[in-house]
Amino acid sequence: MAVGAIAAAALAGVADAFGTTGSPGAGTASSTYRISAATVTRGPLTSQTQVAATLGDAGTYSVVNQAQGTLTELPGAGRVVRQGQVLYRVSGSPVVLMYGPVPAYRDLSEGMTGPDVAELNTDLITLRYATAAQLGPRAGWTYFSAETAYAVEALQAHLGVTQTGTMGLGQAVFLPSAALITGLGPGTVPGGTAAPGSVVLTASSTTPVVTIALDPAQQSEVKDGEHVSITLPGGTTTPGVVSQVAAVATAPGGSSPGSTGSSGNPGSSGPDNPATITVQVALSDPEAAGRLNQALVEVTITTGSVADALAVPVDALLAQASGGYAVELIGAGGHHHLVAVSLGMFDDAAGLVQVTGTGLAAGQHVVVPAA
User: pLDDT per residue over 322-352, tens digit each?
Assistant: First the structure.
């Protein structure tokens, strides 16, 4: 790691350790630079890196209709529709939002099996129209049982429609999560035709996510499940967890480095458009995001730790003409002398660096530039 805040390339001289110019100490030359003092500390040191990121929603959705009829009710942009609520109406009949990764593609009735049945059973339990005990072991939730039919009837009674115990195609839309309505689909208007397979609404997830375009050189420093700190606009911080780290770097245009388009031209990655690793971070407290969307944030990533480290501020380091680094130690009576140091772990967030050097100990003071 490069040192980002070294006091000087070579030591030209120092001033009094507490900010006033005066007689230089041993091994120094006269100087007019204003300086101050910092304490050498010992204890745990965490290597942290701060990276720029964007806080937005977790994804966008196209709401595909499967009912036939006339669109008689549509939600307005900005409305949030949740599991079990009416998403829109076709010829007066409600189309309810349910959660799940499998889109509706068939009528569901007693005796059927499949992943779409499993997501329906899961929803019915979440909405309290059935219990896990009634539907049996989770492995059996892929089966549309008599208990499932009874729970569907309860849902239909709540929606005010005929209680058939079957979930007809077009009566529900399955999306991964709650939907924030962002607009109408192409050609969608109140009173228009609801054609099966048409996109009637566009929506986005209500779950906030932080996206980092990470330098590929830092990929090994970030792991799934790692805890991070997110600094929001205004300076407040909130915890988060890394939820996904892409395996392949992509160029800004979305292609991987070296890939070619249909015309055979190389991708846009280059010195001015470097490829990055996409990292997603889930907020531990989603409510902390408030109404922020596409907001610039900073993420503090922990890349390592040392249980017992001697540390000084990074700006106490002095690059030596002969190579390596030193710190200027303030001794008794204000006497200054240089101590050669070897560098260890950096904590970019705290501005500290682990050092070892002969005669250097916790509690001593070193010269740093005055604030």
Answer: 899 999 999 887 788 999 999 999 887 788 9
**Confidence label for 1 from pLDDT (cuts 50, 70 and 90):** very low
Whether residue 228 contacts residue 242, with contact meaning beta carbons closer than 8 Å, is answered with yes
In the three-class reduction of DSSP (H, G, I as helix; E, B as strand; rest coil), residue 119 is classed as: helix
Residue 334 burial (CB < 10 Å; 0-12/13-18/19+)? Answer: middle
Largest CA distance in the chain: 95
At 217, is the secondary structure helix, strand, or coil?
helix
By the 10 Å C-beta count (0-12 exposed, 13-18 middle, 19+ buried), 236 is classed as exposed
- What is d(CA 204, CA 62) in angstroms, rounded to the nearest whole number? 9
β-strand 295-313 against 237-245: which pairing, if any? unpaired
Q: Please answer whether residues 67 and 96 qualify as being in contact, where contact means their C-beta atoms are separated by less than 8 angstroms.
A: no
Question: How many other CB atoms are there within 10 angstroms of residue 74's CB atom?
Answer: 19
For residue 121, what is the DSSP state? H
Block residue for tokens 């599991």? 83
What string of H, E and C letters represents the secondary structure of 291-310?
A: CCCCEEEEEEEEEEEEEEEE
